[in-house]
Amino acid sequence: MGIVFKEEQKLFRLTAGQSEYVIGLADDRYVGHVYFGRRIEDDGCGYLMRTGEMPYVPSINKRETGAFMDTFPFEYPVQGRGDYRETCLVVRTQEGFRGCELVYKEHRILEGKPALLGLPATFCTEQGGGQTLELVCEDKALSLKAILRYSVFEDSEAVVRSVELVNEGTKPLYLEKVFSACLHMDCGQRDVLTLNGAWARERHMERRALGYGRQQVSSLRGESSHQEHPFIAVLDKNADQDQGQVYAMHFIYSGNFAAQAERSQFDSLRMTMGIHPEGFTWFLAPGESFTAPEVVLVYSQEGLGGMTRTFHDLYRNHLIRSPYLHEKRPVLINNWEATYFDFNGDKLVHIAREAKKRGIEMLVMDDGWFGCRNTDDNSLGDWTVNEKKLQGTLKNLVDRVREEGLQFGIWFEPEMVSPDSRLYREHPDWAIAVPGRDPVQIRAQYVLDLSRPEVQDYVYEAVAAVLRSADISYVKWDMNRQLTDVGSCYLAQERQGELLHRYVLGVYALQERLVTEFPRLLLENCSGGGARFDPGMLYYSPQIWCSDDTDAVERLAIQEGTALLYPLSTIGAHVSDCPNHITGRVTPFATRGHVALAGTFGYELDITHIPETDRMEIEGQVRLYHQLQPLVREGDYYRIASFGENHRYDCWAVVSKDKGEALMTYVQVLAEPNYHSRRLLMKGLDADAWYRMEISGPEYAGRENNCPAAADTNQGNQQEDVGRWKDSGQVYSGRLLMYGGILVETLYGDYASRLFRFVRV
Hints:
By secondary structure, this protein is an alpha+beta fold. The protein has 17 helices and 39 strands. Helix content is 21%, strand content 30%. Strands 6, 7, 8, 9, 11, 12, 14, 15, 19 and 20 form a ten-stranded antiparallel sheet that branches. Strands 29-28-27-26-23-22-21-31-30 form a nine-stranded parallel sheet.
């Protein structure tokens, strides 16, 4: 790891693990991208900017400066001077003129990494230091300074970028577009990979050919969104999980974004990422600065799997701050799908009592405990406990649950307000709205204007007062609607275009205050499920609710796409009841548990009403969680097969850092008649080591002759085997397991699953 400036060659070389990022100066003024890929360690690579061929640099070819602008691989391209590809910066003057030209002024190489004021950002640790390059550029005509920041870490392959803009003049400037990063390379025949979806089917992987023009994913919803994710990757046509080049960008931000790949007329490729410019204008007064959020850039020569493990390690080591990062988290049960709004204190205590018998460690009280909240059309903003419903004070209920032996958690939706609420009747101007227009309702609620300091203070004190009143260990912070009618009664006319970004900064400020006052609080973010599952929120909470769809089969695609970028320990995953409340699908209780184990693990059901056989199985699942949780939390993730690709089965593995233990999860989604066993190749093991294989999963008597009746006779004994491992009696070499594989017999029925554990001997 390191950053060096080669004075003679005018090159900045940033080394991140086995990757290298090289920046060059052309004409001693234009900052250009030279190279990003596997380490080359060659100071003679500046020719890759192609400044030695037509149209040459402006000092040589003064009559074709425009052609230079439209072909040069700018590190931070700007609008208005002849670059017609996607740019990163648009500036308007007070007189209404647009245009900018940033040229190199100076640079600094810093030990460590500066924080970004008010924004989530990666950081150095004692275990993993880093360095930061600050390239200072200026536009003298605008009196505008741009600080381009690049950081690398000792233990990471990633490069992290951001930009700060400073108005050093005497007149205000209007920033109409500020992207955070640009990456330039030759295109060739490549694919684009994005994560797309909708509510209840978030982050499905989509791969398509990269053609000419611009291919974009974005959000204008005020959040990173269910529909598209702040991530984009460009990869070789032959790239898969294990081989091929991948170039990826991921945005550490929770609001509107745009991520784009553009193939130009000359077969060059430009990737850009930042805050979406639509609806964005930032009034930059003299002496003021604006800092854009960070973008993480990852290069992998080991396919998507290599990219995944780089993101996972970076976020575990340099983004998530929670004390729970390396701690076992309690197995919780949430009452939402168990009761919805129909509960009281006695009902919750009854659930807690039964949950304790099965090894569950926390009860979470979801929506419906405050105001007059027996339906979802009122009381948001009135965070006063409904003591009649809870049959006493909140502290009394919490104490009752703790007497049963469980911790207590609670749900909030702090960013919202119901029209039918005391708060809205007293402060209608606190809601985001356009004057003179009735605001759009979504879920019978409006959004609070978090750009207002008094609104932030009210929201924080409302939440903090509840947490101070009782021994509460966990908060689920929800956000159930998108932003519309974007207007603020607080912001001045010239700052209305700042509202969307200031709203996100308000969310960050609130959560920063929360984790500061309550450092041992386990915070889980949520947004109608997974609409704000992004790196920005991980800075404040170590886990995020992955999706409101808890169906185990639907979760295969959702969790595959999520795990492409995020450690499994961040993925909120629960076992729910069947038929599933969203899909109506019925899946085995064991499979629901196996899928949820690839996440934070908990329950979303009424444990007092499910069959006794399922209640008994919970004990074994909780036992499995305690056995496997350190491995799942800290290990390296490998994708072995994808149900989204083969339409038959799913398989993934987690391998400990020392390669001494591994877990492989196999889900047979669709049973097939008259098939031989399926061969699965393990990944990530020590080829020279030997491993004992153990198997966990319900056994089906009579499977060999396809006899359902015989299989049913064994159901009563299956619960005794849950959470226990059957030794295969065999020891296998790592080479055999990875290159020869294991054979998995055809299981009986759809949605069947198995766990395989490999322990080095």
